[in-house]
Design brief:
Blueprint lengths: L6 E7 L12 E7 L8 E9 L3 H5 L21 E8 L9 E4 L6 E4 L5 E2 L15 H14 L6 E4 L7 H10 L3 E6 L2 H9 L5 E4 L5 H8 L4 E5 L4 H7 L3 E9 L18 H10 L3 E4 L6 H17 L7 E5 L4 H9 L6 E5 L4
Parallel strand pairs: 8-9, 8-11, 9-10, 11-12, 12-13, 14-15
Antiparallel strand pairs: 1-2, 3-4, 3-6, 3-15, 4-5, 5-7
C-alpha cells in the first residue's frame, strides 16, 4: 500500500514479547497525518532502519540508555525523511534529513534530532554504512579495540551492519581478521568480497576447535556483538592484554531468564584478571558529539575509494517491518536491514 497524503500508517507495539517476537506483538494502525506547530517540522518517512536494540525496547524494563516502548505506541527507529511541511526556521519542505520518526509514514519533530543529509545518491546508507551501525563499528574498534598491525581481530555477525565494517576497518589498520557468521554463503562473502582472512560458520559442530585453529596466535581484539556460545569459544583464546569492545549480545535478547548450566562467571573473571583483558561496553549515543564528524569524513573517503564495501538487505513496505525485525533477530539478514517505505 503506497503512502497517503492524509493517512498516517504506523506500526505499534501491541504486546510484550515472550522470547522471540511474533507478528501478534505488532499492530498496524491508521491515523490522521499530524500538523506541525510553531518550531516543528512534519517528516515523511522514506527509509526505516531495523536494528537488534529494538528487541530490548519492547520489554517492560528497557536498557538504561533508552525508554521502553509503551503499549499502543509506534515502534522507534532511525529513519531517512523528507520534510513534508515546516514551521521551523532551519528546515524547508523537500529537505532530506536523518531522523527518528520510527515505524510510521509521518512524524513531527522539533528539529533537535534531525541531521541534514543534503542530496545523497543512496540516502538509505545514512542508516547503515554511513550511519549508526558503521559508527558503532568505528568507535568500538578504533577507540576500544585499538588494533595494531599484525593483531588478530575476531568479529561475530561478520556480514551484518556492524561486523562487516569492523572487519574491513581492521584490515585497513593492518590486522589479520577472522569473521564468524551463520552459514557458508555469508562466510564466503566475508572472505571473497569483504577481504577477511578467514570466516567460520557458527553452526558448525566443530566451531570452537575450528576457531582455535584459525587463531593460532590467539585473539588480540574480539568485537563483541553476539555473546552466547560464540563468546564461550572466544574466551579461552584471548591473549594477554586483549581488548573486547562490547556493543551488544543479540544471542541473549530473547531470553526470559538466565540460561541453565554451570556458572561461568568465575571463568570470565579469572581470564579478565590473569590476562589483563580490557572488556568495555559502550553505547554509541555517547559518542556523536566528539567522534561523528571524524567518522563521516573518514568513512566517506573509504567508501568513495572502494576500500570499504557496503551491503544493504532491503525489505519493501512498512507493513513488512515486523517480519523483517523477527528475521533480523533470527540472523536471517544479509547486510544492513533497511525497510524501504516510500520513494523520495
Amino acid at each position: 500500500m503506497p503512502q497517503s497524503d492524509t493517512l498516517n500508517r504506523r506500526i505499534v507495539l501491541a504486546a510484550r514479547p515472550r522470547g522471540l517476537p511474533t507478528p501478534g506483538d505488532f499492530r498496524l494502525e491508521e491515523t490522521a497525518v499530524p500538523t506541525p506547530g510553531e518550531g516543528q517540522v512534519l517528516l515523511r518517512t522514506l527509509h526505516l532502519s531495523l536494528d537488534p536494540y529494538m528487541r530490548q525496547l519492547m520489554d517492560e524494563i528497557a536498557p538504561v540508555y533508552a525508554a521502553s516502548v509503551p503499549l499502543g505506541e509506534p515502534m522507534p527507529g532511525g529513519t531517512v525523511n523528507r520534510v513534508a511541511a515546516s514551521k521551523h526556521p532551519q528546515f524547508r519542505p523537500g529537505d532530506l534529513v536523518l531522523g527518528n520518526a520510527g515505524w510510521q509514514d509521518y512524524a513531527l519533530s522539533d528539529g533537535q534530532d534531525l541531521l541534514p543529509l543534503g542530496e545523497m545518491a543512496q540516502p538509505s546508507l545514512a542508516l547503515g554504512g554511513l550511519g549508526m551501525p558503521a559508527f558503532t563499528a568505528y568507535v568500538g574498534l578504533l577507540d576500544i579495540g585499538q588494533p595494531k598491525p599484525g593483531d588478530t581481530v575476531v568479529v561475530a555477525a561478520a556480514t551484518g551492519a556492524v561486523g562487516s565494517v569492523v572487519g574491513q576497518i581492521a584490515k585497513l589498520k593492518g590486522a589479520r581478521v577472522v569473521g564468524i557468521a551463520g552459514g557458508a554463503d555469508k562466510c564466503r562473502y566475508a572472505v571473497e568480497t569483504l577481504g577477511f582472512d578467514a570466516c567460520l560458520d557458527r553452526h558448525d559442530p566443530e566451531f570452537a576447535s575450528r576457531l582455535a585453529t584459525a587463531c593460532p596466535k590467539g585473539i588480540d581484539v574480539y568485537f563483541e556483538n553476539v555473546g552466547g556460545a560464540v563468546f564461550d569459544a572466544v574466551l579461552p583464546l584471548l591473549n594477554i592484554g586483549a581488548r573486547v569492545p562490547v556493543c551488544g549480545h543479540i544471542a541473549d535478547y530473547n531470553n526470559e531468564k538466565l540460561p541453565s548450566g554451570p556458572n561461568r562467571l568465575p571463568l570470565l573473571m579469572a581470564a579478565l584478571l590473569q590476562k589483563r583483558i580490557r572488556m568495555q561496553g559502550f553505547v554509541i549515543l555517547d559518542h556523536y558529539g566528539d567522534r561523528f564528524d571524524a567518522f563521516r569524513r573518514e568513512m566517506g573517503e573509504w567508501v568513495d575509494a572502494g576500500r570499504v564495501t557496503l551491503r544493504e538487505d532491503r525489505v519493501d513496505g512498512l507493513d513488512n517491518a515486523p517480519a523483517a525485525l523477527i528475521g533480523l533477530l533470527e540472523g536471517r539478514n544479509f547486510g544492513k536491514r533497511v525497510v524501504h517505505v516510500a520513494e523520495g
